[in-house]
Amino acid sequence: MGYSVYLKKGEEKRIVAGHSWVYANEVAKIEGKDKNGSLAGVFSHDGRFIGKGYINHASKILVRIFIRDNSDDSEAFYEEKIAAAKLYREKLGYKNCYRAVFAESDGIPALIVDKYGSYLSVQFLALGVDLRKEMICRVLIKIFKPKGIYERSDAAVRKKEGLEEVKGVLYGTVPDYCEIRENKIKMLVDVKNGQKTGYFLDQKENRLAARKYCKGEVLDCFCNSGGFSLNAAKVADKVIACDISEFALKNVRDNARLNGFENIETLCGDAFEVLRNFRKEKRAFDTVILDPPAFCKSASEVKDAYRGYKDVNLTAMKIVKSGGFLITCSCSHYMTTTLFERMLIEAAKESGRTVRFVEIKTQAPDHPALLCADETQYLKFFVLHVI
Predict the structure, then answer these.
(1) Phi, psi torsion values for 135, nearest 5 degrees
(2) 178 is known as an active-site residue
(3) 3-class SS at 329?
């Protein structure tokens, strides 16, 4: 092995507990020489072996550990890891669409694989896995036998790894839209230009859970391609799907037609302004759904994000009919469950409404979170009863 990375005294505790990331400022010294992106050994200050992972001198995360024994990063190793990830999802009953590989949670840091019907959408978010893209694709083809694989490595986080944002077909042919089935609803997923890998699979169980709260008239803000809107439309009298992107709203309308839904209306606009305008018009809804993008992507943005979450939730509470529901979410791990709950309590107090917690959920089971890595536990889904 080329590089041997030795940690500063005491810095090994988090990593020994199972966390994958070794930050550059935690390292005392590096011995040996190899190529950037190669497999490096990581040792405690007194020389005890901790694990092996890919090194990247251009990143603040110097090493991403994924091997804890004498194994090597062979094709057989990847095949074993990915097959185990697939088996776990199959045991949970996932077949048509699911997250097939969830990076650190499945023992392969920085690799995301989402299955959309007969197609895979993948992200290589760090140098180590990016350099092994061809090998990983061979393994994916062998295990999943997809009609096509599309790369969605157009994520800003790659810049921190010294990598460019890229996307394109890696195998076979991939249509502009892949049809999936979620909660017995047909969805057209734009794997080439949709958010992240094309669709937010982490909310699928939550979208099903939301149905029982969606009687009457529903407002779905930050609706994206309409996951919550379509599930609401199964039971609601009317759904207004709101998003700032007309591109996303076209996808909503296409999905509504695909399912024969005639009770979905789209509204293009900034959700903050839309909510305030409905408030001014004294318009109220039986249920309001808030599923915004992450308001904070770093710890330094938490204060501003807190104000943003509070603003949008406070206004939403004011336009829910008495006895109605507010379904509200956050997908930023920096906005912890404790912080999110505190924000909701403050918003409820200032709204002048009596608000009850009804249901609290997190990301779908195909996005399992490691207890040793807070970053893998990120999604909050709260159902509130507004009296």
Answers:
(1) -65, -45
(2) no
(3) strand
